[in-house]
Amino acid sequence: MKTDISTALPPVFVINRPKDQQRRADMTERLAKVGLTPIFFEAVDGYQLDIPNLADYDGEKRRRYFGKDLKAGEIGCLLSHRAIYEKMVTDKIPCALILEDDVFLADNFKDVIEDLQGCSVPWDLIRFVGHGKVFDIGYRSLASLRHGYDITRVPTSPSGAYAYLLTQEAAKRLLHFMHRNWIPVDIIHSRAWQTCLETLLIHPSPVTPDLEGPSTIGDARFDNSKQIRGLTKLLHPFCRCWYKLSNGAGKRIVYFLSWFRDRKYLSN
Q1: What pTM was computed for the model?
Q2: Class of domain 12-266
């Protein structure tokens, strides 16, 4: 899609639970240091939801493909991000920066946002992820920004929804995939072959997650023990295999096909 947004700075939404006052204070200070003002958006507390009876959650599909349910924190996180997309559509917000409340920002982060607002490379979703091995197997650099940053396309599907910039059209598109949920929000972001969004990353990432502090999502999501029985247990190996194959094929197809439209930027 072609990016058609104002060069004015977008609103900065920070997802935060009202009870997490220290996180709110920390983010206010961190954003002030880089010249940005937060709009705190009340998070959905997944631990307060009746998840087995939640109409927004497809637990059966989740268990078929992963052998376990999404955790309460993951569901709350997803619904929080979805609520911002709904606000963007309802209020006709052209573009927004969305942050979770446990991130660190580079001193020149505001410059990166300004450069992205006026760049010639079209985008729908800019993800500020880069921890781990995201860029280790290579990437395609499409444009240079100030301070040594590049707009890039990667052949992988990295995790993380702690910081990103998206357009209103992207918000509409993501909402289409968030009626009955079975994967976390960052996985939805990474499935560009399904969303058909022009999804790009910034290298190096000017935003990093706080990996030392406790996560509000919780660490139970890393427990790989299976919680299935009956027909779901029988179907799980086949569904899981299909998920891995389709995921691997999807991200490689997107990376390959995008070369044809990326090449005009690669030559610059």
Answers
A1: 0.92
A2: alpha beta
